[in-house]
C-alpha cells in the first residue's frame, strides 16, 4: 500500500436516519454541495461519480423522505438549493469541523497497521474483468466447485484497467475484450504496450456482437454513427478505459465524427446500465452488447464482433489454472449457453492461446491453438 497521505485510512462519520430511510445520505450531501458550487445537476452528478439518472433518483428519494424540496430548477438558469438543503449542508459541515481533530487522532493506529506489507490468501482466485454477464455464471460455478472453500472474487473494471491489475498482481485473472478484424488492431496494440504487462496465456471466453442500442422502435430514426452528433439525440457513453469506449472512440474517429460534439450525457460502467438508461427514456442511444438490447426489447444496429478473453500470467501456476478453466469452458453444456444469448458464440470458449495465437485469431487465418493438457 502506498504511504502517501491521500491513500492512508481515515476514520469518517456518516449520518444515520434509520433503517427505513433511503440509502446514501453521504452521497446526497456531496451532491448537494456540488450543485451549490456548480449550479448544474448534470455537472454535480459527474463530479460526484453519479449518472444523471441516479442523481435525480437520489434527490427524489430524499425529498420524499424529508417531505421538503431540496432543489430549485429553472429553465436556462440551472439549479440551486432550497433553504432546507442549505441547512442540511451547514449542519453537516459544522458537525464535521467539530469532530475533525478527534477523528484524525483516532485514525492514527489504523494508518500504522495499513503500512505493513500486504497479505492475501494465496488460495484465493481473484478476477478483475470488464463487464460480462456470463462471467458471473463462471464465478458461481467455480465457487461451488472449490472443495477447499477458497474464495473466488470478482471486481468489475474496464478492459485496460483489468490488464493493469494483472500486471500489478492485484488479480490472478483479467477479463478483457478486443474487436475482431482491422478495428481491433490499434486497441490490441494499446493493450500490449501497457507497462509491466507480463507474458500472458489467454483463454477464449466468448465471441460477442456490439453495436448501437436504441430506444424501442427507434423513434429518432438513427441509422448509424453519423446520426449521433444530432442535437436531438442523447448519447450515453461508457467510462474511459472500458474496451467498449476504446472501440467507440476509434469508430468515431474513423467515421470523421467529432466526439466533443456529442451531447454531454451520462457515462455508465456496464452494458446493462447503458441499456437500462435507454429503456427508461433517459437516453436515446449507446454502444453496447446485442444481448442486453434484446433482453429489454430495444432496437439494435450491429457494428462489430469482438472476442472476450481471460488472461493469466504464463507461469506454472497460471498454466495450471488455465487448464482447469479451459476444461470447464469446453464442456458442451457451457458452450450451449451461447445459443441462448443474442449476439453470442462460444465456439472458442476454453481454447488456450499465446499472444501470437490470439492475434492470429483476431486479425488473421484460424489460429494454431495450444493443446490442453
From TrEMBL:
Residues 146-329 form the PBP domain. InterPro entries: PBP_domain, WH-like_DNA-bd_sf, WH_DNA-bd_sf. It holds the Pfam family PBP_like. Transmembrane segments: none annotated. Gene3D superfamilies: Winged helix-like DNA-binding domain superfamily/Winged helix DNA-binding domain (1.10.10.10). PANTHER family: BLL2305 PROTEIN. This is Molybdenum-binding protein. It comes from Methyloversatilis universalis (strain ATCC BAA-1314 / DSM 25237 / JCM 13912 / CCUG 52030 / FAM5). The lineage of its organism: Bacteria, Pseudomonadati, Pseudomonadota, Betaproteobacteria, Nitrosomonadales.
Amino acid at each position: 500500500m502506498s504511504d502517501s497521505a491521500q491513500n492512508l485510512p481515515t476514520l469518517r462519520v456518516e449520518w444515520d436516519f434509520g433503517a427505513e430511510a433511503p440509502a446514501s445520505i453521504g452521497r446526497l450531501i456531496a451532491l448537494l454541495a456540488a450543485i451549490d458550487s456548480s449550479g448544474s445537476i448534470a455537472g454535480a452528478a459527474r463530479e460526484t461519480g453519479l449518472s444523471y439518472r441516479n442523481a435525480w433518483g437520489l434527490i427524489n428519494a430524499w425529498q420524499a423522505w424529508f417531505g421538503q424540496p431540496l432543489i430549485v430548477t429553472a429553465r436556462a438558469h440551472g439549479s440551486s438549493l432550497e433553504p432546507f438543503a442549505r441547512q442540511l449542508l451547514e449542519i453537516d459541515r459544522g458537525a464535521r469541523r467539530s469532530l475533525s481533530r478527534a477523528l484524525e487522532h483516532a485514525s492514527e493506529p489504523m494508518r500504522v497497521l495499513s503500512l505493513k506489507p500486504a497479505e492475501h490468501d494465496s488460495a484465493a482466485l481473484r478476477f478483475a474483468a470488464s463487464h460480462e454477464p456470463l462471467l458471473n455464471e463462471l464465478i458461481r460455478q467455480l465457487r461451488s466447485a472449490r472443495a477447499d472453500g477458497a474464495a473466488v472474487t470478482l471486481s468489475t473494471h474496464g478492459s485496460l484497467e483489468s490488464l493493469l491489475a494483472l500486471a500489478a498482481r492485484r488479480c490472478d485473472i483479467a477479463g478483457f475484450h478486443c474487436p475482431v478484424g482491422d478495428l481491433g488492431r490499434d486497441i490490441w496494440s494499446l493493450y500490449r504496450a501497457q507497462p509491466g504487462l507480463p507474458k500472458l496465456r489467454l483463454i477464449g471466453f466468448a465471441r460477442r456482437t456490439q453495436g448501437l442500442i436504441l430506444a424501442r422502435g427507434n423513434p429518432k430514426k438513427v441509422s448509424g454513427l453519423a446520426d449521433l452528433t444530432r442535437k436531438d439525440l442523447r448519447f450515453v457513453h461508457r467510462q474511459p478505459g472500458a474496451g467498449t469506449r476504446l472501440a467507440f472512440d476509434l469508430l468515431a474517429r474513423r467515421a470523421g465524427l467529432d466526439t466533443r460534439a456529442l451531447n454531454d450525457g451520462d457515462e455508465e460502467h456496464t452494458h446493462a446500465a447503458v441499456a437500462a438508461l435507454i429503456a427508461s427514456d433517459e437516453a436515446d442511444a449507446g454502444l453496447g452488447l446485442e444481448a442486453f438490447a434484446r433482453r429489454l426489447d430495444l432496437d439494435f444496429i450491429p457494428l462489430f464482433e469482438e472476442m472476450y478473453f481471460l488472461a493469466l500470467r504464463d507461469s506454472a501456476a497460471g498454466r495450471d489454472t488455465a487448464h482447469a478453466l479451459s476444461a470447464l469452458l469446453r464442456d458442451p453444456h457451457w458452450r450451449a449457453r451461447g445459443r441462448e444469448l443474442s449476439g453470442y458464440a462460444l465456439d472458442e470458449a476454453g481454447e488456450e492461446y499465446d499472444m501470437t495465437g490470439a492475434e492470429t485469431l483476431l486479425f488473421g487465418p484460424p489460429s494454431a491453438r495450444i493443446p490442453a493438457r
